[in-house]
């Protein structure tokens, strides 16, 4: 802590700048953890500060009303520890009521060690590996001491039954094991340096040091602004690969899974940018590929029956010559197997929905905007002018122009329109 630095009081989460620091009655410019310190924090009144409160950097410490850890009963503990006991928790200089929510073994006797999940009567700041003491309420008796191993433990019954399995590695492995245990949990979501620092009460520098060490050993995979444990990444890739395989099995004629659906399946709690990064890593690892709209497994190919392949070719040929938007039923025209092939043409963009229940071919749409760019350039034009130039009905002209407006290729100005921007398929070669 330094003079002038902004700090936060926990659990109240009130902020103040440090006006003055004293160590053993002498004014200093900086103080470190472990020193006996007096600080002048002008934004707080003395009534707002209570014994046991914690001063740290803003948004640097998470609050928790549950935590898990190990305990060591005193050799002369007057009573055993068991589930449901209401006790007094002493952590730091704070005293607060708590309840034993889960215990392994079910009863811990004097002199024995165990694993405990405690529910605290209020949300308090906890630092990973903090020491604590548990005392009986009445009569006041010291029962055991312990250490915080998980400030945000999983609450499911299955996790509780195997509590020792995820707490013992943290106790034995220290900070690295604690980080990996947190990163392995899907319910927590994607983590970055700030998330971990806040969860464990560490500085960002400490967190970066541990993460870099885990990355060097291959236990953590670094992305642009977040990271995954190697175990979690493998789990995500395997689960997602299975989901895409099942999609192919259910929809063998579709090119792949819709990309938006795939991103949400791969990393449900991530941002779109994070989802895209993990998707790219999945593809780089050789599991599959994708484009702007679809995702598919490596080696996957649609297999059309001879009849479906024939209908597919027939509809593509029709799309090359059809200068009119039509209803789906008109496109299919009672062709056998056409309903199975229709989604493929829509996925590939050979046929596009133009409005309501009308569909037009990509060639019909693209040639229309090309004609507008070549014939009118920057000049405004009316519906009738486009209709006559493209030699289509007024209804079809309006349908196309509304589609162009929606795509921002054209812009309406009263009864006329102008070209707003060139479509990508026309490119910069055709300048307005």
Could you walk me through the main structural features you see in this protein, from its secondary elements to its overall organization?
With 432 residues, the chain is an alpha+beta fold. Among the domains are: 6-56, no CATH class; 63-166, Elongation Factor Tu (Ef-tu), domain 3; 306-419, Arc Repressor Mutant, subunit A, CATH 1.10.10.10. The chain is 36% helix and 28% strand. The chain contains 14 helices and 25 strands. Strands 7-12-10-9-13-14 form a six-stranded antiparallel beta barrel. It has a three-stranded antiparallel β-sheet with strand order 2-1-6, with no helix packed on it. α2 (163-173) packs antiparallel against α3. The protein is elongated, with a radius of gyration of 33 Å.
Lay out the secondary structure.
Elements: E1 6-10, E2 14-17, E3 20-23, E4 26-28, E5 37-40, E6 54-56, E7 63-73, E8 81-82, E9 86-91, E10 94-104, E11 107-108, E12 113-125, E13 131-136, E14 141-150, H1 157-161, H2 163-173, H3 175-183, H4 193-200, H5 204-216, E15 220-222, E16 227-229, H6 230-250, E17 257-258, H7 259-266, H8 272-284, E18 288-290, E19 294-297, H9 306-321, E20 326-327, H10 328-332, H11 338-348, E21 351-355, E22 358-361, H12 362-376, E23 381-382, H13 383-390, H14 394-406, E24 410-413, E25 416-419
Antiparallel strand pairs: 1-2, 1-6, 3-4, 3-5, 7-12, 7-14, 8-11, 9-10, 9-13, 10-12, 13-14, 15-16, 17-19, 18-19, 20-22, 21-22, 23-25, 24-25
Helix pairs in contact: 2-3, 4-5, 9-11, 13-14
